[in-house]
Design brief:
It is a single chain. The chain is of the alpha+beta class and about 300 residues long. The chain is built from seven helices and 14 strands. The strands form three sheets. Strands 5, 6, 7, 8, 9, 10, 11, 12 and 13 form a nine-stranded antiparallel beta sheet that branches. The chain has a three-stranded antiparallel beta sheet with strand order 4-3-14. It has a two-stranded antiparallel ribbon with strand order 1-2. Strand 1 and strand 2 form a beta hairpin. Helix 2 packs antiparallel against helix 4. The protein is globular, with a radius of gyration of 20 Å. The chain starts with 7 loop residues before the first helix and ends with a strand. The N terminus is likely disordered.
Length: about 300
């Protein structure tokens, strides 16, 4: 596999994100290198990308005793509860028996790679190969509510070193949102952020909701065996985040997030790529990254060897 040199901005990303990034590069290189001769198909990058609403839109009303008449109301309440939840910390015992302080609400994660296309077509060999690559590279993480980059609040920062302990979400980030009254003192808020290419945690509409990869074009450019028959990495590597949702259950009285599922979707496309003697190849795939809160005790122990005190 080609060596990848990390640039300074990526060093601030947490270990899980960097593992996902390496997974992306390896999968794409394998797709390009093993694919058959080029056939006449539609350029994936040239196809129109439509950012479609995949959730119900907000119906104005009172939910759990709280009035929601606009996306601004939804965002304001979400931010208030998010910020409060990330002030809550707990003590944990690590594998060495030492006590550490992390967020009270920690999440477990999972990653899947799907819809692998070479020159716009599926390849059975690649479909069988990539899941093994995913399993070998992906290492489960353990962090607070996204776009969190560390379970330790003091280390939860963006690419500029600024804190991510409070939400940066604004109404203009959202394509849609809705609220449901669960009838038990909790409400469920569902968010769908607008599409964004090369999203970074805390830095844009997708990064205000999800733990995204950041701009990887610079690192792609550093892969010595990879070049492009037209343009450069910025033009030929697209990571469009779209169609993902955050489903967050909130205790209205305490304004605390008690359960959440963040379903992040990234559509990756590489076009006009050259690898060794292979020229002008195109490939695409879909990365689905899911985070569930709260993480179970078994997950804490099995992935990070820590226990709640």
């Amino acid at each position: 596999m080609a060596k990848v040199k990390t640039k300074a901005p990526l060093k601030t990303l947490n270990k899980v994100l960097f593992t996902v990034f390496v997974l992306l590069l390896v999968a794409v290189i394998l797709i390009i290198a093993i694919s058959p001769a080029k056939v006449a198909t539609t350029d994936a990058a040239a196809e129109e990308i439509v950012d479609e609403i995949v959730i119900d839109e907000l119906k104005s009303g009172t939910y759990g005793g709280v009035n929601f008449s606009s996306l601004d109301d939804v965002v304001a309440f979400y931010n208030e509860c998010y910020d409060h939840t990330k002030t809550l910390t707990s003590q944990y015992k690590n594998a060495e028996g030492k006590t550490e302080t992390f967020y009270t609400l920690l999440g477990e994660d999972d990653l899947q790679v799907e819809s692998i296309l070479i020159e716009g077509k599926e390849n059975s060999m690649i479909n069988n190969l990539v899941p093994g690559v995913v399993g070998g590279l992906f290492s489960n993480g353990l962090d607070g509510l996204p776009p969190c980059t560390n379970r330790n609040p003091e280390m939860d920062v963006d690419i500029n070193g600024d804190s991510l302990t409070t939400s940066r979400l604004v109404a203009d980030d959202l394509l849609a949102a809705n609220v449901v009254d669960n009838g038990d003192g909790t409400i469920t808020i569902t968010l769908q952020p607008k599409m964004f290419n090369m999203s970074a945690p805390g830095m844009d509409c997708q990064g205000h909701v999800f733990k995204t990869l950041g701009d990887i074009a610079g690192v792609v450019s550093s892969i010595s065996v990879l070049s492009f028959s037209q343009g450069d990495a910025n033009e030929n590597v697209k990571v469009n985040y779209m169609g993902g949702t955050a489903v967050v259950k909130i205790n209205v009285a305490s304004k605390e997030v008690v359960e959440a599922d963040y379903h992040e979707v990234a559509q990756v496309a590489v076009t006009h790529a050259n690898v060794a003697v292979l020229k002008d190849k195109s490939a695409s795939l879909t990365i689905k990254y899911d985070m569930h809160f709260p993480a179970s005790d078994d997950y804490l122990m099995n992935t990070k060897q820590i226990t709640r005190l």
